[in-house]
Amino acid sequence: MSTSPQQPQQTTPLAAIVLCAGQGTRMKSALPKILHPLLGRPMGSYPLTRALETGATRAVAVTGHGAEQVERALTDALANRVVDSGDGLRFVRQEQQLGTAHAVLCAQPALADFTGDIFILYGDVPLVSAQTLRALIDAKAAAQSPVALVTTRPSDPTGYGRIVRDAVSGAMTRIVEHKDATEDELGIGEINAGLYLVSSDFLWRSLGRVDRRNAQNELYLTDLIQLAFEQSTPAATVRAEFEEVGGVNDRVELTRATTTLQRRINERHQRAGVTIELPDTVLIDESVELAADVTIGPNVRLVGGTRIERGAHIGQGCVIVDSIVGEAVEVKPYSVFEEAIVGEAAIVGPFARLRPGTELGAKVHIGNFVETKKARVGVGSKANHLSYLGDCDIGAGVNVGAGTITCNYDGVNKHRTVLGDGVFVGSDSQFVAPVTVGNGAYIGAGSTITEDVPEESLALSRGRQIVKEGYRSKRQNQKKRG
Ligand code: UD1
Ligand code: MG
Q1: Is 252 inside any structural domain?
Q2: Which ligand is closest in space to the CA of residue 25?
Q3: Is the residue at 194 inside a domain?
């Protein structure tokens, strides 16, 4: 980027229009292009988020193809994520896709009472940074132009609108779309990224003058550039790397964008003190929070509202969704968490599955092939092997033996199992809920517990062992005789 990224003294009110109505034919998908996810969030939600972060107080998304689905998904993606869109997000419909200028015209009624500068962003240019949007504000103000836009130089400009400049002054005179370009114009390497900041009065005045006389018979937003040149001041430009502002039109470009975003997010965490052992294999959603001195092993995926506190170690192949992992927790390889809370210095895994509503206290140990759901486990308790702990309250210092099962479901309702502090559960026990075991009680191995157990007692519910001595020889004698 050639322009200073510093926050300007912003006094002009800001709004944003994000174009999301196109079908995205080249994606060859039943899903509207704008909803294809980039690290878990629909691609169209990224430019919206960036505009709101940059200070737009109102945002209008123009929808068309799959409008209802698109509106629902964008609303969900923006709720409680990264920035608060407040009442700022509105949708307008573009029933027929007659071009990018037509799409912007559809947003006019929603911004009729707005005077200021309007970002116009394309929903299929997802990786634009807030820094580049701020640079647009600076460039527009410095040039005192009615429009500023982002340009870039891809290695292959095929398909993009080319930036035509005056040979002498270097001022931008117009944009020519690929399909309308002459041989000479196709040789231009500088292209339009599809990210603009436009004065509202110039925008609405000029859009009425755009016509459909072009190869695609569409209303091109890019015609604004020539109108600015002719009527007032040439457009101001901000140069960005193609990696940041390239469009996503097919699935190869989608993967490229995912990889770029992945690298950007991982590097942000690395610079903030997180060790990521093999970053190319690790996918961390933009919304995830990581404290310093967290270590992330290979092939880890961290999703949604996950937060990981200082010094925690996430082993190879773990998937952690919407969970909180406390300080100095050790998560061993191939564990899967969903909506779980893990207390500090707990040790979980390998191969543990923590399902929604799991709350582990400090220093809890959950070992291999243990599944928990709506399970509260107190400080220092251990369930190290092969268990299902569902709908249960387990006190502090409890030892849950291998193969313990809470039978929480009677075919109709779910019931809770309560184990008091210091309970010792022998291996291969079942708790037929609802059932409560008092503090300090013992459960003999192999028991099926159907009734409450008082504190400090021993409960046993297995058949007595019978031993028949000399059985083998008696049996062999019987055979001979027979
Ligand atoms: C557009 C630009 C081109 C630029 C490129 C950058 C125009 C005329 N061309 O071309 O100069 O280099 O983006 O990526 O603007 N959309 C609507 N309604 C419509 C048409 C499009 O909402 O009627 C939306 C699409 O969903 C998409 C965005 O606008 O998000 C851009 O449309 P697309 O068809 O991808 O334009 P490009 O051919 O990429
Ligand atoms: Mg495009």
Answers
A1: no
A2: 1
A3: yes
